[in-house]
Amino acid sequence: RKAMLIFIVMFFHSAAEGIAVGVAFSRQLKSQFGLYVSLLLAVHNVPEGLAVALVLVPRGVSAPLAALIAILTSVPQPLL
């Protein structure tokens, strides 16, 4: 149950990050700003994914499945 809650929260968190990237590439802003925000979020997502996986493994989720779940939480980011 907690693992599902973590997945849902991180899923919506990534959706908000995807919207932020879209806004950063707005025509009203310089294109370098969009690249900067994208780079920062990419760096931010590495420890975030590790945190998700490290919470799941002690709860009985296998390491490969935890890695997959961590990756799936970031799916909405490029879509929004």
Notes on the structure:
- With 80 residues, this protein is an all-alpha fold.
- It has four helices and no strands.
- Helix 1 runs antiparallel to helix 2 and helix 2 runs antiparallel to helix 3.
- The chain starts with a helix and ends with a helix.
Question: Summed up, what is this model?
Answer:
Helix content is 79%, strand content 0%. It contains four helices and no strands.
How would you describe this structure in keywords?
80 residues, mainly alpha, 4 helices, 79% helix, elongated
Quick one: biggest sheet? none
The number of helical runs is 4
Global geometry: elongated
Mean pLDDT: 85
Instruction: Report the C-alpha radius of gyration, rounded.
Output: 14 Å
What sequence of helices (H) and strands (E) makes up the elements?
HHHH
Proportion of residues in extended strands: under 5%
Any low-confidence stretches, pLDDT <50, length ≥5?
A: none
* Span between termini: 27 Å
Computed structural class: mainly alpha
**Helix coverage percent:** over 70%
- Would you report the number of β strands? 0
Subunit organisation of the chains: single chain
